[in-house]
Please model this.
Amino acid sequence: MPDVRVRIAPSPTGPLHIGTARTALFNYLYARHVGGTFVLRLEDTDQARSTEGFERDILEHLHWLGLAWDEGPAAGGRAERGPHGPYRQMARLPLYAEAAARLVAEDRAYPCYCSPDELEADRRAQEASRQPPRYVGRCATLTAAERAAREAEGRRPAVRFRIEPGVVAFDDLIRGRVEIDTAALGGDLVIVRADGTPLYHFTVVVDDAAMGITHVIRGEDHLSNTPKHILLFRALGHPVPAFAHLPLILNPDRTKMSKRKSQTAVRDYVAEGFVREALVNYLAYLGWSPGTEEDVLPLAEIAARFDLAAVQKGGAVFDRARLEWLNGQWIRRLADDDLVERLAPFLEADWAAGRIDRNPGPAEIAALLPLVRERLPVLGAIGELVGFLFSDAVAIDPALLVPKRWERATARAGLAEASRAIDAAGPEGFAVGPLEGALRGVAGANGWKAGDLFMAVRVALTGRTATPPLFESMVALGRERVLARLDRAARALEAETPA
Model:
């Protein structure tokens, strides 16, 4: 289906949202599945809230996700691509003005001189009489003389599109037959403000028609807008595209996902260390399934299997724990060199922030992969796991040094005995097997459970109760530092304050 054309049209009034990213992904998947064209258009007519920073965030993170567009605006050093540009709405204002003038000339739209006070009074009256808000039609039948009189008063008109009575019906590719009575649309629709700037419902139709968009794939929250858009397509004499409305992404409490309750900006997931492969994989499963039990699929494989008919109607709950699990699966699949390259910036950030005292090089990170690969839920957790290796000293809470079954004196004795055993084994005995044997011997000789001694030693060396495997960590830390930290922890148990 090479004639299929889909688009993603974000507004640069905020960073790339998880919902927008999922919509972009489904458009991309459909285009790639059928051999169609994926278009990016920036809807930047809200000049009060649109910023270059938000635009850059959106474009960079779509690129980071691997959602390369076939047509779109100049970005990231690349020139504008495609025959239907410009791909920023503020550069397309003459097109909207021409379309609006044509609708007015054909009496499918008309100038509206209603003031904000008049519209507010109408709204309050409707509210008082328990009626749904709608435009009362005050300017719908003005004569030329009446319009001239209002112009003479200095009133600048908006442009309203006439919403004719009746039912608008369409076959949604996901939801099936949809029928909406135009009486529910709020009356005649403003398509151009009094200051001349066009509104969303108008620009999206003009642009979709001009760019030859054949399939509009967007969120369920746009379903109520679709009748307005269909009426505008028809009034402008353009073919009506096919529509597919994706299920909403929901919070765990099944409310609509929003930044008040959830982390919604893609950049925040990037900053935490979610990998692109996992985030794309997870977003694809928010409303779609390959029909098998497979959980881990790369983008190309998802595109090969994607089918709009398999998209669910019900809302898709965003499960953070599930995303972290999937992220861990992808981290385990990364090649060593790739994983080292992705981990390095997080350790560098820990060093820059003073959380570690030395920034390790690639070789040092590579040596740690066997310790951390199976334990990383996100790349950003690397500092928590192995930061103790690159710190001159670690903060120790003496309370954590004392296992539940031990007294403070027992913990102090355990650390001292462990230190003596390690020292006595000498440098040649400082390896994983001998270290474990030595500490198990200390525990057995004193009637302690080995797990209690191991926990006290772990906290002494790392400051934490959960780390990569203890004996491998000891080898990575080095004999001299192990002995020094055990001695320091034992002394901390004698002090009144934490070390």
